[in-house]
Amino acid sequence: MNHSARIARLLVVGAALAFPAFLLLGALRLVLSHEFLRYEYTRPGFPADPYGLTREDRLALGFYAIDYLLNGETIEFLSSLTLTADQCLGGHKNEDTCPMFSKAALGHMEDVKYITNLTFAFGLGLAIAACATVIFVRRSATYRRAILRGLHLGSVLTLAVLASLAVVAAATWNRAFDAFHELFFAAGTWRFPFSDTLIRLYPERLFVDAAIAIIVLVATPCLLVLLLYARTSNKLQ
Fold first, then answer.
1. Cα distance between residue 52 and residue 40, in whole Å
2. pTM for this one?
3. Is the dihedral of CA 143, 147, 152, 156 positive or negative?
4. Cβ(97)–Cβ(85) under 8 Å?
């Protein structure tokens, strides 16, 4: 195998792996947004807070955690927030204000932010590598064809994985949800009572809808790639 052929093979593999990673990171960023959370809070059928937070309360309070995950602030950004007397529960019920998040929830949010920062730092590195690759292959038809084949292969593999995960999640959502958290967080640090503000603002239904949105956002470009590839494959021979 000559040098050019080895590079072409590496480009196929690299594109096949990088493409789904890009799609997943893009989908995560779209879901981790004010717009998605606002849609969830206002759509018909989204579960109400059994402890009394109204839709307006959620719209006023829910965006803080997203902002914290994406900004450069420390946990004081969240620990300084308070609820009004009518929003407080438990031992704070008769106080004028109470902390918005419990100490356990604040610790969990720090863990989530750490993982979020690592994830998007990886995405930035991937984007830089992709730009460098585009510059490298722009004058070589052979290398460009290799990239296209890699995108096709990555799309096929991604759709297969998504289909498998969707079946597993639909059949055993609770186990899948627990397995995901156990993969990234220490035991006992991510379970909270339903009365915790974190759960009142971000109930499990939100994560179900987020998972569905991510699947759709990742699968759609893959299907488009397969369609375009089918129409142009004869030109790549």
1. 17
2. 0.89
3. positive
4. yes
Rg (CA), the chain: 22
Instruction: Enter the tokens of residue 53.
Output: 């937070």
Sequential DSSP letters for 185-233: S-TTSS---TTSHHHHHS-HHHHHHHHHHHHHHHHHHHHHHHHHHHHHG
Q: What whole-number distance in Å separates Cα of residue 59 and Cα of residue 66?
A: 12
Q: Centre a 10 Å sphere on the Cβ of residue 146 and count the other Cβ atoms it contains.
A: 24
Give the HSE-up count for residue 227: Cα atoms under 13 Å, Cβ half-sphere. 6
Give dist(CA 100, CA 174) in Å, integer.
Answer: 27
CB 159 within 8 A of CB 20: no
Say how far apart CA 165 and CA 28 lie, in whole Å. Answer: 16
Q: Do 202 and 65 meet the contact criterion of CB atoms below 8 Å apart?
A: yes
Where residue 17 falls (left for φ over 0; alpha for ψ -120 to 50; beta otherwise) is: alpha
Whether 102 contacts 89, CB under 8 Å = no
Sign of CA dihedral 148, 223, 217, 28: negative
Each residue of 111-151: pLDDT tens digit?
999 999 999 999 999 999 999 998 888 888 888 889 999 99
